[in-house]
Amino acid sequence: MNSTVSVKEPHRPFTTKELVLTAMFTALIAVCSIISIPIGEISFTLQTFAVFCALNVIGGRNGLFSVLVYILLGCVGLPVFSKMQSGAGVITGPTGGYILGFVLMALVYWGGTKLFGRSLPVRVALMVVGLILCYTFGTIWFVFGYTKSGSDMTFIHAMELCVLPYIPGDVVKLILALVITERIKKHADI
Fold first, then answer.
1. For residues 54 and 48, what is the distance between their CA atoms, to the nearest angstrom?
2. Structural domain boundaries in the chain
3. 3-state class of 190 per DSSP?
4. What angle do CA 48, 16, 7 make, to 5 degrees?
């Protein structure tokens, strides 16, 4: 009887440098979320800029952990969410899906760079796809949160409120994140 043995690839532990960079980008996401301009239902923040920077500098795996630690810090009570809010209620509230969408952005980036490499066009495409998934997931969450409370909200109306006004700013944030992080990577040992 012939049996094959599958060898599972061992999980690579974080290096000290990766832990420090992950913590640094967690802090950047927190600071960028506190800087907010209220516009309708959702404030304009620099969170997506910070997530784009994290993904482009430290990659999908470490970027994912930065996002997860950021969310965990907010859920346990540190005021790291928009408007210096905190608590699990922010995540479970109508706009929490957009924050959880950052996890999708990092997962898409991580998986995509493993499959297609880290060339600039691939990274840009993955960040755009991740942002679209973040918008979609967040909008579905938003609609569910509103309709759960007895209010009427359609997906199209939620897109008009929560996505369309933010697309130009997110495009600018993506471009700025790429320009800044590419320069940082040239001059730093990252």
1. 10
2. 16-187
3. coil
4. 90
Average pLDDT of the chain is 92
- What is the CATH topology of the domain spanning 16-187? Arp2/3 complex 21 kDa subunit ARPC3 (1.10.1760)
Please choose, from the candidates 104, 114, 103, 42, the residue with its C-alpha nearest in 3D space to the C-alpha of residue 69: 103
How far apart CA 7 and CA 86 sit, in angstroms, is 43
Distance CA(163)–CA(121), nearest Å, equals: 24
What's the CA gap between 180 and 151, in Å, rounded?
42
Rounded (10°) angle between helices 120-148 and 47-75: 50
Region of residue 16 (left: phi > 0; alpha: psi -120 to 50; beta: else): alpha
**Contact partners, residue 155, CB within 8 Å, separation at least 6:** 139, 140, 143
Number of Cα atoms under 13 Å in the Cβ half of residue 159:
7
Q: Cβ-count burial of 5 within 10 angstroms (0-12 exposed, 13-18 middle, 19+ buried)?
A: exposed
pLDDT of residue 169 exceeding 80: yes
pLDDT tens, residue by residue, 74-85: 999 999 999 899
Question: Mean pLDDT, to the nearest integer, of 119-139?
Answer: 97
Taking only the tens place, the pLDDT of each residue in 174-187 is 999 999 999 998 88
